[in-house]
UniProtKB/TrEMBL annotation:
PANTHER family: OS05G0353850 PROTEIN, RNASE H TYPE-1 DOMAIN-CONTAINING PROTEIN. GO terms for molecular function: nucleic acid binding; RNA-DNA hybrid ribonuclease activity. Residues 273-284 have a biased composition (Polar residues). CDD domains: RNase_H_like (cd06222). Residues 113-231 form the RNase H type-1 domain. This is RNase H type-1 domain-containing protein. Residues 273-313 are annotated as: Disordered. Pfam families: RVT_3 (PF13456). Gene3D superfamilies: Ribonuclease H-like superfamily/Ribonuclease H.
């Protein structure tokens, strides 16, 4: 009987396995080389390499980083500045719709509203300070045009002008409102921002000298009169005696705000009669929902508001 032996997996098959392994390694090396060439030529990875080189080779300046961040915040503020939600009701705590609008101060206080606009191409800015009483009537105010570096710096300068005005007029008990939230946050935290450092230091000093002056943020919808006056001042459309004879557009806005406030107060009285006072505050004027860092509760104390016929803007 003849037997034939077959070498399975023995020494005879080893050269074939080594050859396959070598070819596999070569293919992998070629693929890695192709991938490396692709990544090296890819523009996205070129930008990443350039950025990484700049970060590792240059010394980071923390102050410059803060300034760049503030410029980005200012650009975002400018981009979203025109997006208004005027006349869009917002839901309150009980689901009722609330309209954001200017709120009158208590009868023994005045309210000061400020606003500013900045034109990046020319570097010019316009600001407005308007002081109103509990009836919504304009007591006095001021407008100015100047050059500055950003919207935030313009808002800070307008705020400082408001404090200087009330100091000169010896108004010791008032509320200052602005729709610039970053500025209010910087004032509350007492942390100057690079581009507004000098302005905020002056603001903090003036506020320390006037402990009865409250500083609050208000949405753009509640700062409409100041915004209208600032836009007119920027376009040289505002008369010199505007505090005594407001433009028709401003006069109409004041009438709407006062009428809406009277309606709210009457609604509060009706709620008191019905025993339901949860939808408003305890003195009859609703607070705006979603207003961050709101410090003061602007309410009218004691007496009932007069009717529309008593209002004279």
């Amino acid at each position: 009987m003849n037997l034939r032996f077959v070498n399975v997996g023995g020494v005879g098959s080893q050269p074939s396995l080594d050859k396959q392994k070598h070819e596999c390694i070569q293919r992998n090396e070629k693929n890695k080389l192709k991938l490396g060439v692709f990544l090296y030529r890819n523009p996205v990875f070129q930008k990443r390499r350039k950025l990484w080189h700049e970060l590792t080779q240059t010394k980071i300046n923390p102050e410059q980083v803060i300034i760049n961040a503030e410029h980005l915040a200012t650009e975002y503020h400018n981009a979203t500045r025109g997006r208004s939600t005027n006349n869009i009701p917002r839901a309150g705590r009980n689901g009722e719709k609330k309209r954001i609008i200017w709120r009158p101060p208590p009868q023994n206080r005045l309210k000061v509203n400020t606003d500013a606009a900045f034109h990046r191409e020319t570097g010019t800015a316009a600001s407005t300070v308007v002081i109103r009483n509990w009836q919504g009537k304009i007591i006095t105010g001021t407008t100015s045009k100047f050059t500055t570096i950003s919207t935030l710096a313009a808002e800070a300068q307008a705020y400082r002008e408001a404090l200087i005005l009330i100091k000169n007029l010896q108004i010791v008990n008032c509320i200052i409102e602005t729709d610039c939230l970053p500025l209010v946050q910087a004032i509350k935290s007492r942390m100057p921002i690079a581009e507004t450092d000098a302005f905020i230091r002056d603001i903090l000093q003036l506020l320390d000298e006037a402990p009865d002056v409250g500083a609050t943020w208000i949405p753009r919808e509640g700062n409409k009169v100041a915004h209208q006056l600032e836009a007119m001042a920027a376009g040289n459309e505002l008369r010199q005696q505007w505090t005594f004879d407001p433009p028709n557009q401003v006069r109409n806005t004041i009438r709407i705000e006062v009428r809406f406030t009277i309606l709210q107060h009457n609604q509060w009285l009706q709620n008191q009669v019905n025993g339901d006072s949860d939808s408003t505050n305890h003195q009859g004027f609703q607070l705006e929902e979603g207003s961050p860092e709101r410090v003061e509760m602007e309410t009218v104390t004691g007496k009932k508001l007069k009717g529309e016929g008593s209002f004279d803007p």
